[in-house]
Structures are given as C-alpha cells and as structure tokens.
Design a protein that fits this description.
The chain is α+β, with helices and mostly antiparallel strands and 620 residues long. The protein has 20 helices and 28 strands. It is elongated and about 120 Å long.
Length: 620
C-alpha cells in the first residue's frame, strides 16, 4: 500500500509539473508542430513634406517560400520558379531537394505580377508572404536627406536611419494548420496576427523650395563646370531646414548597391558631415563679435595697401592693389581682409574665440541626422597673432555648411541661435500626432542691437558690393560672398582649387529665409563667389518670393544695360576706372600683368550694377 501510494503521489507530482510548470513550453512546442507561420512585414511609415506631398511610401511585394515536405514534384517547382524569379533552375533544384529544413526562402521583394503568375498555377509546396518595398516618388530629389533601406526594410542612413525606430513598425504573423510532415491540412483555417504599421514623418522641408534649389545647383554646376554644388535653405526664425540640395546625386529607387564606394560617396550628406574653410563668409562673425564687444565704431577707418604685417609676416588682401582708406561698412562691402585682420587682433584670442563658440562653431548643432561633424579650430592656447589674423577673415578654421548657415540665421534674427531640424512632427498610422518638434533656442549669440546693425551691413554688400547678383528687385536682400582655397591630402594649398560660396537672407526688414550656396572647384578663372554662387542664390530667392506671393517693399526700377567694353591689354587700374564709370562692380583674378579676358565677354550686354570679372595675366 505504501509503495502504491508513493507511485500515485509521484505520478500526480509529475502531472502537476507538466501542467503548471512546463505547460507553457510544451504548448509552444505543440503549436510549432501543429502550425507553420509566415511573417507579415509591417508597412513602413511614410515620409511627407511640409505640404503633405509624399517623399517616401511603400510598394506591395512578396516573399516566395518553398516547404520541401509539401512539394510533390521538385523538378516542376524548380522549373516554374526559375523563369519568373530569374533564378538558375539547376541550383534551385539542388537547394529545395537536398535540404532538411522545413521552409526555404527562395526570393524576397518579388513583384506582384510574378506572384500572380505563380499563384495561378497552384503548385503544391510554394507559398507567398505579403510585404512591402520602399518607394521614393521623387527619385533623385532629397536622396542625401531621406536615405534608403536595406532588403529587410531597415533604415540605413539619412532620415530613414535616424528615425528607423518610428518608421519600421511591428511585424505580424500568419499561422496555418499542418500535419507532422509540415503539409497544410485541407480546409484548415489560417490565423493572422496583424502587423502594426510604422509611424509617419512630417518634415519641415518644402518640396517646392527643394525643387528651386535642385534646379539652381544643377544649372550652376553645369555652367561653371564644378566638381559638385550644394545649397541649404533655412527658416531664419525657427531653424527648420526648408531645403537641402546636393549634386551629384542618385536615384533612391535604384541605389548603386553593387559599388559601395560610389554609394557611400553619393549618399553622404556633405553639408552636415564634411567641413571646409569658409573664407570671406566667416567675416560676418568677426564683424558681429567686434560690434558686440565694442572694439569698432562706424567712424573707425582702416587703410589697406594690399597686405598687412603681423608679427613680421605679411598677409595679403585678396585685392593685391589694396582698397585704400575704408570704414567698417565699406570694409564689409568690399570684403577687405585687412579690415578683418584688424578686428580680430583688436578682439584678442579669448573674446574672438568666445564669440565663435557662441555662434555654435566647433560643436555639433544637434540636428536630427547621423554623422554631424564638430568642425575644427586651433586650440586657443596655441593661437598666435598670425593665426588670429587669419581666423578673422575665415582662414585657419573649418566649419560645416550647416553650422555656417545656422550661425548666419542667428546673426540676422535678433541674435537667437536656433537648433536646425528636418522633422516637424510624427503621426501614427491612424493620423494621431505622437511627437512635435518645438523650435529650440540654444543661446543668445549677440544682442538684438548688434543683429540690427549686421543686417544693414550685409544689405550693403548686396546693394553695392560683390553680392549684387543675389539681389531681387523689389525686395531687400542681405548677404556675403566667399572664395576659399582648398587643401590637398598633404595639408598644403591646392593651387587653382576653390570653394565658392554665397550666404544670404531676406527680407532684411523681417528675415524669414537664409540661403547658403556652395560650388566646389568651379572652372578655371571664374571662381569668385560673387560671380558663380551669388546668382544661384538670387534665383532661389526670387522663386521663393513668387511662390509665397510676397509683396515687394522696394520700388522696381527699369533695368539698364550697356555693352561690355574690350579691356584686352589694359592695366587693372585703367579697367577698374572704366568699369566704375559704367556703373559696374568687378572682381580681379590674378596679380600681375594686364587684362587678358573678361566675364562677361567683350561685346555682350551687361546689366548696370552687376559684377564683372577681370582676368589679369600675360597677353600675347
């Protein structure tokens, strides 16, 4: 009796363990035997521009599976799959007939037409799982911003990668009753665990403004035979990035995945990741710092002989013949290097560096994007007067284009340094808002009074200086041109290679838009920002004003034209006097010799007030 009682007790104890302790695991194992599951990919969230236009959505595709235990004729399956899926029949036969796994993935992201063809044949052992493939209706537009996904629909870079956890959703599953061999039971019921679609991104970017920028940089790159071109358009008040165009580009629907070096080069967002020496556009911040710290007044005058001696070293002004006596406003308008060397030396290392850092340089802007660079600056403890003078006019410092335009926005918007951003808000698949980006002010970079003075100085550069090609009739536009040398891999100056730029804002009385235009290595001779970059920015400003139906605030004058004279063989001084008398501004390329060519060429019609280029060198 004791033995029988013990046996029954042990039996009940074992049953209790099976039911209460191991029940869930055994149930899972049984379910694996009773059912075969197919994954249901979650639709990835869409990406929209600020007007609700689709920038990224999904296209229906399927994954094709084979369950060897359910196959009746392996030759038939291999033959029928090989043609529509473009697979090798012999290799496919080997794959499905020799494996011991219960389920084989044959091909992913198969188009609907091929699947419909196979479904019509109703071949045992072939199964299909619905899914989606990323689709970009705008093709090449915004390719460096949107990024792309891999075959698993996981974001790889750009906004697709940065916001992947919002966009990807949660996959579902389809369960079908099968026998022990894995064959589907006749009249079985398929059960579904539905997928949860990803959330939708709503960008602050405007596809219309983006198209203006795309066309402008393509046209400029083609006209000036540049290596590349790029443009950023930013909302001055909120920091929102309204457009970011970059060329060369690629089709997001057909990225060159078989050439990773090319893919990485084309998909890299150079405006955020790369740094460059800004040149004269950096003079904006030297000027703002000098005004903010009270080291310069309107009445201050500077004398430029074409160079400036700092600690025994002679640093040249861009204009070798000098600018003569100029005040601050004139110095900014003609971009005299000597003026900005003086301002930097008056400020000293600490005040200039504190101001530069206050504008966000040498630190990340916290933009919602991968791979942002900090920029580069000499450690302040190592800065000598010669370095300080060069930093004053935009050399010996490296910044990202995004840092620069964000800092310019702070200069003209009342001094508020705003965080740049791409996404304005995020909604779930049902349309409910789950996140909204509130504009964030990082700090007060300068006072509103200094900002107001800077707006006036920069407007003068467009109305009377090298930025005239960026002007738009009827509107007040301010800005600054830049022409910076490039450096080779060994750190030395790359002769004849420049980055030409223009950064501007409008309207001056109430700034709303800022534009930065960059042209990398424009063709020989015509490399000044005033000649190659400013016109592109002016076209985009004009298009934005028309698009926004903005009312002109200035009188529109009837343009006057003159015939460009022939200056061949003249000295730079003689040519300059004639150009001034004709109402033309000018840039000089070269340091010695006589005029050997001009742009526009002799005999062409030139608008009064525009900028011409004189090339100085040897003549035949």
């Amino acid at each position: 009796m004791l033995a029988v009682t013990f046996l029954f007790f042990a039996l009940f104890l074992r049953l209790g363990c099976i039911q209460l302790i191991d029940g869930r695991e055994l149930q899972r194992r049984a379910t694996d035997q009773w059912f075969r599951e197919l994954p249901l990919s979650a639709p990835r969230g869409h990406i929209y521009d600020v007007n609700g236009l689709v920038l990224a959505d999904n296209r229906d595709v399927f994954t094709v599976y084979v369950r060897p235990r359910a196959v009746e004729d392996f030759e038939l399956v291999a033959r029928e799959l090989s043609v529509p899926l473009r697979l090798d029949q012999r290799a496919l036969y080997q794959k499905i007939s020799t494996t011991r796994v219960s389920e084989i993935t044959i091909k992913r992201q198969v188009e609907v037409s091929a699947v419909e063809e196979l479904q019509a044949k109703n071949i045992p052992g072939i199964y299909f799982a619905p899914g989606t493939r990323r689709n970009y209706p705008q093709n090449e537009i915004l390719s460096q911003i949107l990024g792309f996904t891999n075959i698993d629909n996981v974001g790889q870079n750009g906004l697709e990668g940065f916001y992947d956890r919002y966009l990807r959703g949660v996959d579902g599953m389809a369960f079908t009753n099968t026998d022990m061999a894995g064959r589907e039971i006749e009249d079985s019921v398929t059960r579904y665990l539905p997928a949860i679609p990803g959330a939708n991104l709503h960008l602050a970017m405007d596809l219309n403004i983006q198209s203006f920028a795309e066309f402008a940089i393509f046209q400029a790159m083609t006209e000036w035979r540049a290596q590349s071109a790029a443009m950023i358009v930013q909302d001055v008040q909120s920091g929102a990035i309204l457009a970011l165009a970059q060329t060369p580009s690629f089709d997001l629907n057909e990225p060159p995945r078989d050439n990773l070096d090319l893919l990485n080069a084309l998909s890299k967002n150079r405006m955020i990741v790369d740094v460059y020496e800004p040149g004269s556009t950096f003079k904006i911040f030297t000027t703002a710092a000098a005004i903010e710290h009270g080291v310069v007044q309107d009445s201050c005058r500077f004398f430029c002989r074409g160079s400036y001696l700092v600690d025994g070293q002679r640093i040249r002004c861009w204009r070798s013949i000098g600018h003569g006596s100029v005040d601050l406003a004139q110095g900014v308008m003609v971009s005299c290097n000597v003026v900005f060397m003086n301002l930097a030396l008056r400020l000293g290392v600490d005040r200039l560096y504190d101001s530069i850092l206050n504008f966000g340089f040498n630190q990340r802007t916290n933009v919602d994007f991968f791979g942002e660079s900090r920029g580069m600056m000499i450690d302040r403890s190592l800065v000598k007067n010669i370095d300080l003078a060069r930093i004053g006019f935009g050399h010996a410092v490296a910044v990202t284009p995004l840092q620069l335009i964000t800092a310019v926005s702070a200069v003209v918007n009342g001094g508020r340094l705003m965080e740049p951003h791409f996404v304005s808000h995020i909604t779930c698949s049902r349309g409910n808002e789950i996140y909204r980006r509130i504009p964030r002010q990082t700090r007060q970079a300068i006072s509103p009074q200094t900002s107001e003075m800077m707006r006036g100085l920069l407007e003068n550069t467009v109305t009377g200086g090298g930025g005239r090609h960026a002007g738009v009739e009827g509107f007040r536009v301010g800005g600054k041109t830049g022409t910076a040398q490039k450096y080779g891999a060994d750190g030395t100056v790359a002769q004849g290679k420049y980055i030409s730029s223009f950064v501007g804002f409008a309207p001056v009385e109430n700034p709303r838009y800022a534009i930065l235009m960059l042209l990398d290595e424009p063709g020989p001779g015509a490399y000044y920002g005033s000649i190659v970059a400013a016109p592109a920015a002016g076209k985009v400003f004009r298009n934005i004003f028309d698009y926004r139906a903005m009312t002109p605030t200035q009188p529109i004058e009837t343009p006057q034209y003159i015939t460009m004279p022939d200056f061949y063989g003249m000295t730079a001084t003689e040519s300059a006097q004639i150009l001034r008398s004709l109402g033309l501004h000018f840039e000089i390329s070269g340091t010695e010799g006589r005029v050997n060519s001009t742009l526009p060429i002799a005999g062409s019609q030139v608008r009064v007030g525009s900028v011409a280029l004189m090339r100085i060198g040897s003549t035949i």
